[in-house]
Structures are given as structure tokens and as C-alpha cells.
Design goal:
Elements: E1 20-21, E2 24-26, H1 54-62, H2 64-69, E3 84-87, E4 94-97, E5 99-100, E6 122-123, H3 125-128, H4 137-152, H5 159-162, H6 176-186, H7 190-205, H8 240-253, H9 265-278, E7 280-281, E8 286-287, H10 293-310, E9 316-317, H11 318-333, H12 351-365, H13 375-385, H14 403-415, H15 423-435, H16 442-454, H17 460-474, H18 490-508, H19 510-513
Antiparallel strand pairs: 1-2, 2-6, 3-4, 5-9, 7-8
Helix pairs in contact: 7-18, 8-9, 8-10, 8-18, 10-11, 10-12, 11-12, 12-14, 14-15, 14-16, 16-17, 16-18
The protein binds zinc ion (ZN).
Zinc ion binds at residues 206, 217, 222, 225-226, 480.
Length: 526
Amino acid sequence: MTGITLPKTVPPRVHLPLISAAGVRVVPPVLVGTHDSETSLVRRSRSDAARLPATLISTIVHTLVLLLLAFFTFQGADGEADSLIARQGQADSVVVLQALKSLDDQQFDKNAVFDQPVTVSIETPAVLTMASPLAAKDKADVVAAEMLELAAGGGVTGSESLVRLPSGGGLAMRTPEGRVEYGKKYGATRESEEAVEAALAWLAAHQRDNGSWSFNLDLDPCNGRCRHTKKKGTESPTPSTGATGLALLAFLGAGHTHHREGLYQETVRRGIYYLRSVAAEAEAGLDLQQGSMYGHGIALMALSEALTMSSKGRLRDSDLYDLVSKATAFTSVAQHDSGSWGYVPGSPGDMTVSAWQVLSIIAAKKNRVDTRTNTLADAKEFVMSTCKDRDFWFGYKGPPGEETTTAIGLALMLYLGQSTEYTPFYNALTKLAERGPKLSNVYHDYYATLALHHSRHPAWDEWNKKLRDHLVATQAKSGHEAGSWHFNDHWGNIGGRLYTTAMCAMTLEVYYRYMPLYETVDDFPL
Ligand SMILES: [Zn+2]
């Protein structure tokens, strides 16, 4: 990365021309922050033309000096970097992910620093109309057209009218203070927090040079040093978008983001860049599959959570938003008529693949991303179609039910607005708690823990103590494997140690990872 890059294009959203005269437009914002050269390029627009007296505007037109003075940028009081730079493809294609202020947020700030160096860029109108460097303009048009088509089919964002999503489940406690407060409140211990930290250290050590993670630990940087029982030739597709998404979710769950200073800021940033670099253009939106809808759903969920966590009110990273909304459009179009998702877009699916799509869509919707009207309603119908007579004993593709898919189904139903006051549903949660954690089946235990946490089931403390202490006790404690988990079971043998470690870390983050879906806490509005 070479020094500071002045953006050559200005997305239309931020384009606030001070002057438009004789084929020349002056384009704010133009100053590039310098406090952390390449990684925290801050670009915030200051365009206060509307507040300047008409006479001053007139003067600006005629004097270059005042023109220069008309532009300034400032560094936010909190010093947080709200922008990202990614290099993808060829060496000189620098991509800037930038946080943009909405017009309403661009108010005069009396604390702004006026005496910093200022650079002014003058571009032609033709340049101003260029799309984000993320994607070619024609692709953006295709997606826009798709979304319009979707809208024509019954209106945008109509899901809520069919599925009432709970207002809880926010990510606001993912801060150092939140970890302490909510860890204490819901049952973390010093040992479980140390286990989370050890897991994150192991995950960070297994990030590949290109920012990705792989389920295949025979590759760099592990080179097979971690033992596993994964059976060769029998595994399901294991895309690195899925592995990268899972690892990112574990970091995000503990409050580590690309925008907040911390031990793993760069780790998370590199992971996000990797996902963005491999997002493939599709007829509708962006495809993160790498061969499996598992990969797409998990990656989208991580990107959505990263977007939520790096947004401040209406200030958000516009390119990350673009990525999330286009990937969500792809998910929506990839849904089968049954309401499920399969390994391949459009194919009849199952509970496990569908779960990642549902959770990722809901995570995207936290960022006000639109989806097709019926996407979540159809998904809910699919989930219910896998049990008989509303007994909430869910199966893989249909009845009969079994324990793991029941744990997934119960968690999904909570996300999809199922009230815990409906007695058969509540009884199903109670039976889940009574069966207890499986201890080696982390897929079951992860979703069961989510379901019991989100419903604040009275059996939580007993469930939590058993699973938490088991995970603390079974984590690898020494050598290269320290911080990781591996259990020799069906799912563990498919996903291997990386999958198991990420899932166990997220299970131990549950206290502060999500605000319970069905408990209102006034001081966290998200
Ligand atoms: Zn290893």
C-alpha cells in the first residue's frame, strides 16, 4: 500500500457540489486524514455551503483562496477510523470503504479542526457518476433492476408484515464494558473469558496470508500441526468464505471489529477484505458461496454484523453496506419455493443450510437492508414444515425430528418471532433444556444455547454451567493447538478444528454476543 490515496471517484450519495459552473464541479470532501496513513484513512465531508451567506458563495466562485478555505475535514472526537482501504485484484486497484455521513449528520461542528492541510480535487461531472470501485456500474444497475423487480412482486421490506421480528438481539454489548457487565449478568466466568481469548488467539494464528481461513488445516499456516479426525473424501463442501465467516463471527462476537482499535482490528479487517475480494457478481447481487450456500450465508452474517458494529447511528460504511445488501439480494433469490435453502441456489434445502441464511438475512435487516416480501415468511413456513402438528420437534428436511435440527429450529423460530408464551413452544424449549447439552455435538449446543439465552429460559443457569465448564475443561491448553477444540463427532469431522473452535468460542460469548431477543433492556436501544 503506498501512502495516502485520494479517492478519484465520489459516490453519488456523498456528492455535495458547492459549485456547479461551466462544466467544472468542485467536489467535497477531499481531505484525507493522516493520523494513521494507510489503514485508517478518514474522509469526512464538510460541506456547509448551505449555511454560508450568498455573498460568500459568490466570492468563492471567484477566488481560489476562499475556495480552498471552503473545504476542510476534521477528525472525529473519538478518533475512530471509519474507513477502510482494501487492495484487491491488481496492485494498483485501491478500494476505499468509506463511512459517509448522512446529510442530516453533516452539521457544523464547532470542534472541527480548521488548520489542517487541505487538498482540493476538481473532477469532471463524468467522473462523478462512476459507481463504487467495488463493482462495475452495469452490475450495480442489474442489481438495482432485480431489486425493483422484487419490489414489483409485492413491495419491499414487507417481511415484517408477515413475520413480526423481535426487536431484541442487538449487538450493543460487544464492548469491553459490555463483556464485563453482561458476562457477569448471564453467567460468564473468568475461566470462560480466558477460554474465549485463547480461542481467538488460536484463530488469529490460523489466518492465511490472504486474510482468509480454511477448514483444511493441512494448508498454511497450520500445515497439519493441528490434529483432527476429519475423514478425507467424505466431507461436505467447505468453502473458505464459510471458514472465514465463522472465524470473523467469533472475533466480532467478542467485540473485535475492523473499525475499533484492538488486538484483532487488523485480523478482522483482513478477513472482511478477503470476503469482499472473492464476492462474485451474479445476476442478482453478490455471490459468496464458493460452491456452497453454507459459505454464502455464514460470510454474509459476518459482514452484516461487522456493518452493524461499525455503524454509528445513521453513519455507516457505504461500501460495506453495498456489499451486504447485494449479498442479501443473492440470498433472497437463491431461496427455494419451499422456503428453504439448499447447497445450490434454488434447490430444495434443509434446516442447517437454511439456518445460516435466515440468521444472515436478519443480521442484514438490522442494517435496514431490504429483502423480498416473503423471504422470511416462507422460511418460517419451511421450518414449521419439518415438524408434525406444531410439536416443535424439527427434522432435517421434514419429519421425523431429531435433537440437533430441533435445537436449530427452536432458535430460528425465536428469531422469526415465535412467542414463548405459546405453551407447546415453551414446552419444547423446556424439553431441550432437560435433555441437556450434548457436549461433543457443538452444532446442537450452539443453537440450543442461543435458544435458551434468547428466551431467557429458567433452566439457563443449569444449562450454562454444565456446558460452559465443559468447554473450559476440554479446550486444548498447550502447544500449537492451545486455545482450540476438536470433538470426534459427525459435525466435528466435517468442519474440523477450525469450525469447532469458532463455534465453541461463540457459545462462550453468548452472554454478551446478542442481547436476548425477548428481554427489553432500555439502555441499549439497538
Ligand atoms: Zn494448527
